[in-house]
Write a structure and sequence with these properties.
Layout (H helix, E strand, L loop, with lengths): L6 H11 L19 H19 L13 H13 L12 H17 L14 E6 L2 H20 L5 E5 L5 H9 L2 E5 L9 H7 L4 E7 L11 H10 L3 E6 L6 H6 L16 E4 L12 E6 L1 H5 L3 E3 L7 E3 L8 H38 L5 E2 L6 E5 L5 H10 L5 E3 L4 E5 L9 H18 L8 H7 L5 H15 L3
Parallel strand pairs: 2-3, 2-4, 4-5, 5-6
Antiparallel strand pairs: 1-7, 6-7, 8-9, 10-11, 11-13, 12-13
Helix pairs in contact: 1-15, 3-11, 4-11, 5-6, 12-13
The structure holds pyridoxal-5'-phosphate.
């Protein structure tokens, strides 16, 4: 594979990924003598100031979901109080176990646990705190693999996920040896139920649906999919990493929210990210299960290790208890009212943006999302539009299959003037790309290549080299 034509692109990428080499000290080995703490703090403050400019004023899609100064200060105080806490040592820090148990219970109740009135432990909604959406998904898929092996004797497990379900499901497939069946979405960008039915066989252990998926924000037909799973006695996972902390409040506010949570009897697990619309600091998420027995398949323990009896409920051993404390503090300090008001701002901002974008003839909003605005175009190169927006400081997410870009709306975009600024730049972007269809290429060619089977290997190589750059000093 001749990589030489990509060398210039990689060199440019390296420059943009390593912007501090010139003006900040680089440490490739420990300094002989420790640097002064004040100096270290000053360096951190400088870096923070540079990077906050990128997200504070609402230029980035997703990424920072709350970000108000006072709220961040509050969370930082909570972190500082708990910085030594480690949930692995529940005897030393029972507060960590209190916080995590309550985070799980509050999330479960928000997601329909109260609809389970039976006292049967097999119906009880329970769960665990993980480090993020990906870990919650990996945990759930490993749980189904082990559950199916033990209770059904399935040795060659398979899972079914719509094409739009998060890449973390592919990661789970690869890590845990579960064969993945990706099924298409329909014209409406929702999972094709008939295709799911056709992909099922005796080795299927779990079906996945998203509320909503990352690319276009359109909730899958979870009611039909979860019933299909229930009728075959297999698991159904709702990935509500994005929507878990928004959709319940959207529903209360009267927005059309399709059913997705434990009120559907076929839903046997849910992932919901506290570090997205739960407004906690990065590093926590919740995975929930229907039934205590199912959760047991997530746990790990060793009884014959010289280091003693070892057990841990999630992938990590030692974990940052401070992040769980921060998550708990975010949840109890916002409360239902805080979450509802935050949701109202986001939903109103999105409704306004959808209306404005729909008034631009060259662009189409994909479907009718509540808080994720994905756009495509039949007449313009959408990646050139994204390129123009990047030059105007906007950090949109590039999507493909089909080519599109999205803005995941957060509290940052609900600040006064942000949505108007976005639309004004977007209109200019459309006019520019229309007038200059041959403007310099950005990420477009790479996305184009990724869509073509013979060139995918090359794109994988580019991504590998990208990750190598991340670890260069
Ligand atoms: C729907 C969905 N699921 C899972 C994830 C993965 O979450 P994380 O990046 O926290 O691992 C994301 C991230 O954006 C997501 O949007």
């Amino acid at each position: 594979m001749d990589f030489s034509m990509f060398e210039p692109i990689m060199a440019e990428l390296e420059k943009s990924l390593k912007p501090y080499r010139k003006d900040f000290p680089t440490f490739s080995r420990l300094p002989a003598e420790g640097r002064d703490r004040k100096e270290v703090i000053a360096l951190m403050e400088k870096l923070r100031a540079i990077e906050a400019k990128k997200w504070k004023d609402g230029y980035v899609s997703g990424a920072v979901y709350h970000g108000d100064e006072e709220f961040i200060d509050f969370l930082t105080t909570i972190y500082a109080i708990n910085s030594q806490s480690n949930p692995l040592h529940a005897d030393v820090w029972p507060s960590a176990s209190k916080f995590e148990a309550e985070i799980v219970a509050m999330t479960a109740n928000m997601l329909g646990a109260a609809s389970v009135t039976s006292s049967d432990p097999e119906q009880q909604i329970c769960g665990a705190v993980s480090s993020g959406g990906t870990e919650s998904i990996l945990l759930a898929m490993k749980t189904y693999r082990d559950w199916a092996r033990e209770t059904k004797g399935i040795q060659a497990p398979e899972m079914i996920a719509p094409s739009t379900a998060h890449a973390a499901f592919d990661k789970a497939s690869e890590y845990f040896g579960i064969t993945m069946h990706r099924i298409p979405v329909g014209q409406d960008f929702r999972a094709d139920v008939a295709a799911v039915r056709a992909a099922m066989n005796e080795n299927t252990i779990v079906i996945v649906g998203s509320a909503p998926p990352f690319p276009h924000g359109i909730v899958d037909p979870i009611d039909e999919l979860s019933e299909l799973a229930r009728s075959k006695g297999i698991g159904f996972h709702t990935d509500a990493c994005l929507g878990g902390f928004l959709l319940p409040w959207a529903e209360k506010l009267g927005y059309p929210v399709p059913p997705f949570d434990f009120r559907l009897p076929g839903v046997t697990s849910i992932s919901a990210d506290t570090h997205k619309y739960g407004y906690a600091a990065k590093g926590t998420s919740v995975v929930l299960y229907r039934g205590l027995a199912l959760r047991r398949f997530q746990y790990f323990s060793v009884t014959d290790w010289p280091g003693g009896l070892y057990f841990s409920p999630t992938f990590s051993g030692s974990r940052p208890g401070a992040l769980s404390a921060v998550c708990w503090a975010a949840m109890v300090s916002l409360g239902e009212k805080g979450y509802t008001e935050a949701a109202r701002r986001i939903l109103e901002t999105t409704a306004w943006l959808k209306k404005e974008i729909r008034s631009i003839a060259e662009l189409q909003v994909i479907g009718d999302p509540l808080f994720m605005v994905a756009m495509r175009s039949d007449v313009l190169d959408i990646y050139k539009l994204m390129e123009f927006m990047t030059r105007r400081r906007w950090g949109l997410n590039g999507l493909h299959l089909p080519p599109s870009v999205h803005l995941c709306v957060t509290q940052r975009h609900a600040q006064p003037g942000v949505k108007e600024r976005f639309m004004s730049d977007l209109r200019e972007a459309v006019a520019f790309v229309k007038k200059n269809p041959d403007a310099p290429e950005g990420v477009g060619p790479i996305y184009g290549m990724a869509a073509q089977v013979p060139l995918r290997g090359m794109v994988k190589e580019i991504l590998g080299r990208y990750m190598d750059i991340l670890y260069k000093v």
